[in-house]
Amino acid sequence: PSISLPGVPEHHLSAKNSSMRIPGRKKLLEALLTEFEKDESVNLTYIDLTNLDLESISRLVADILLKDPLEVKSLSKITFSHSNGNVFHLLQLLRLLVERGIVKKINQQWTWDDDEVEQGLRSADSVLDLVAGTIKSLPRPVQEALKIASCLGSEVDSSAIDIVLSTSCGPLLDQAANEGLLVFSPQYGGYRFGHDWIRHAAYSLIPEEERADFHLKLGQRLWRSSSPSALDQNILLIVSLLNVGGHLVNEKRQRYKLAELCLKAGRKALELPSFSDAATFWGKGIEYLPKNCWRENYKLALDLYSNNAEVETLNGNFNVVAVCIGEVVQHGANLDDKIQAYTALINSMHQQDDMKEATSVCVDVVNKLGERLPLKASK
């Protein structure tokens, strides 16, 4: 099945290296890499490994089964064709073959029938289901930790998981790492998912009809437990989580609070800078506003519509710009409150090469400010 992870862009996921706990069972290499990271005199080179070729897969399979590469040539070809050389996928397939008794040990020797292997892999579930099966074999608390982590990004935010579970998740993450689901990242200072498939598999364990509510509750838990400074630091992640399930919130007061958070998140996104993300947050904030928002919460409505008009001008979404400007011009209490919207209108016309109309609006605004300018320059 295809699993779509709701939008929490990776750059929204604040790296909390200062508060991250190094996993308890660090191996010597992990400890050394961490020390090297801190040592500015050491030059470290990170290499992204690509999929292995058939020859490398044959050597790997031979090492695993304690056989000569020639003895596993046919098995390697079959598993290579189903894994495309991806090591994680290959290991999952070998595990499946052993669990189903297709590859079995007889008299201390691994044996198999090539036709049975091919048939077994042809009827096997997708790699997503294989990994999900591995996760479901773990204790329930470990599963819960991985499901939460899957909503937060590729890097496992243990401090956030601790908050949600109200307990230390260190031992749970260690168990997942022992199964090869998580790997230690010296750059991050903590665990990360070993592969995107693993994160997707963990996310697939959340029933589809419960995912929006799951995200909403995660966001609410993190929001309510955050100090003002922590909220400011993690506002993009928290609001992204809340917005996945925001449509489930019906109480007006709570929707106003979500709109206020979206306003703050949009301003934070501009600091990155990310105009598209700012527009996403402000557009979502506008969705939370009720019809009578201009009367009930004038400043919030003005800020959301004005800011969104401005940033969508930069994004080139001129239909959205027109709607936002229309709201501000209609409901703005005075000219000062409409200046940002008028500026966005002039800029959007300029970007669309409508200089005549842009000039007309500019002159009209200047005249409203008390300065008389003619529409046409006199000779």
Q: How far do the termini sit from each other?
A: 72 Å
Number of helices: 19
Contiguous runs where pLDDT drops below 50 for at least 5 residues: 13-27
Order of helices and strands: HHHHEEHHHHHEEHHHHHHHHHH
Strand order of the largest sheet: 1-2
CATH superfamily of the domain at 249-368: Tetratricopeptide repeat domain
Shape type: elongated
Q: What share of residues is helical?
A: 55-70%
CATH topology of the domain at 249-368: Serine Threonine Protein Phosphatase 5, Tetratricopeptide repeat
CATH class of the domain at 249-368: Mainly Alpha
Sheet of most strands: 2 strands, antiparallel
Whole-angstrom Rg? 28 Å
Structural class: mainly alpha
The CATH architecture of the domain at 249-368 can be named as Alpha Horseshoe
Average pLDDT rating: 86
Description:
The protein is mainly alpha-helical and 379 residues long. The chain has a domain at 249-368: Serine Threonine Protein Phosphatase 5, Tetratricopeptide repeat (Alpha Horseshoe), CATH 1.25.40.10. It contains 19 helices and 4 strands. The protein has helices at residues 28-38, 54-65, 73-83, 87-99, 114-122, 127-136, 140-150, 158-165, 170-178, 196-204, 211-224, 228-244, 252-270, 275-288, 293-296, 298-315, 318-331, 335-351, 355-368; strands at residues 104-106, 109-111, 182-185, 190-193. The termini are far apart. InterPro entries: Hybrid_Histidine_Kinase (IPR053159).
